[in-house]
Design brief:
With 345 residues, the chain is mainly α. The protein has a domain of 220 residues. The protein is 77% helix and 0% strand. α2 packs antiparallel against α8 and α8 packs antiparallel against α11. 38% of the residues are buried. About 2% of the residues have low confidence.
Length: 345
């Protein structure tokens, strides 16, 4: 009779070990680089050689992509809808400009400082989104963005006010690579930061931490019941997203040598949300695909109809809402899903 409890304990331990092994294998399979991801980065490098006259628009795509991927970390994984993500983007842009103008012109240093400053703002404001519904969070984040825009406009002695901040020139990257008029160095710099940022956020998203974010997104109360610290997870994800949004703003300042209150305008938050609507949320690369499509379509429409291109962008958004994001995104999801299934076999 005394053997039975021991056998039960051994059986339970072996079942737990087997479950942990299966979970480890699943996490490893989920986190490995997919074939389509490799294609994305090869295409980014190939564009440098194949499209030398398009460096400026490609740089714009890379910056917007980093901004969108940072938002996807909180929207697609934690389910936090934000209309004020531009606050971090704009703060990073201004910090990078002020660093180049008054302190240290080396771009990577300015990039890191801008990211840290935006991360601090993200940490301080993250506690405002822990309570309430999605509507409350929308209004709260929107208010933060509007306040930051007004601060930048009123502190003209520091930010240049409505005229913006100019008269500075970023130095060579790491003291070796100077920005050129054709934008080639700037493009490689932005793609490099986008790659590193995406890989870091990808590692976070496809780790146990990322799975806990998805659990919180699905049902925060049930997650709390199984000892998932939802508040800490949301604060951490929001802060990390703010860091990379600030870096995206810093890249814009460093590649254009100018920053104005436009970096804090509401339309930037609307644009980045539209990018994720087009590209999809919850797998990070939707921000990259969406940034490519959105920028190219906007550029094409602005050439064909300079006065009414926003009308057609709005029409696209209405179609996406009426028809359904899932139906229109199948062309984006089809290839990654098929390739992922082949790799998992």
């Amino acid at each position: 009779m005394s053997v039975l409890p021991q056998e039960t304990t051994v059986s339970a331990n072996s079942s737990t070990a087997a479950a942990e092994t299966r979970a480890a294998k699943l996490m490893k399979r989920r986190s490995r680089i997919r074939f389509y991801e490799i294609i994305v980065w090869i295409a980014a490098i190939a564009a440098y050689f194949l499209l030398p006259s398009k460096m400026l628009i490609l740089t714009e795509i890379a910056i917007l992509a980093l901004f969108a991927v940072s938002l996807d970390l909180v929207l697609g994984f934690a389910g936090i809808v934000s209309l004020g993500h531009t606050a971090f983007f704009g703060l990073g842009a201004y910090v990078a400009g002020l660093m180049a103008q008054h302190y240290f012109a080396e771009p990577v240093t300015g990039l890191i400082v801008a990211g840290v400053a935006s991360g601090v703002l993200g940490l301080l404001t993250s506690f405002l989104i822990l309570r309430g519904s999605d509507l409350t969070r929308l209004m709260t984040t929107l208010g933060i963005g509007l306040m930051m825009a007004e601060v930048a406009n009123q502190m003209a002695w520091l930010t240049g006010g409505a005229d913006g901040l100019s008269g500075f020139s970023p130095g060579p990257i790491l003291g070796m690579f100077e920005f050129d008029l054709f934008g080639k160095v700037g493009y490689l710099y932005c793609v490099g930061v986008l790659f590193i940022g995406t890989m870091i956020m990808r590692r976070i998203a496809f780790s146990p931490f990322g799975l806990s974010l998805k659990a919180i997104k699905g049902n925060s109360m049930r997650s709390a019941m199984v000892a998932v610290p939802a508040r800490k997870r949301i604060v951490t994800a929001y802060t990390v997203a703010a860091v990379f949004a600030g870096m995206a703003g810093a890249l814009l300042t460093q590649t254009t040598a100018f920053v104005s209150p436009d970096v804090l305008a509401f339309h930037r938050s609307a644009d980045v949300l539209l990018v994720l609507v087009i590209g999809g949320t919850g797998y990070l690369y939707g921000g990259i695909f969406g940034a490519i499509l959105f920028t190219l379509v906007k550029d094409w429409l602005s050439v064909i109809t300079p006065q009414y291109w926003m009308f057609y962008i709005g029409m696209l958004l209405v179609i996406l809402v009426l028809v359904g994001r899932d139906r229109l995104s199948r062309w984006v999801e089809y290839l990654p899903e098929r390739l992922s299934k082949k790799e998992d076999r």
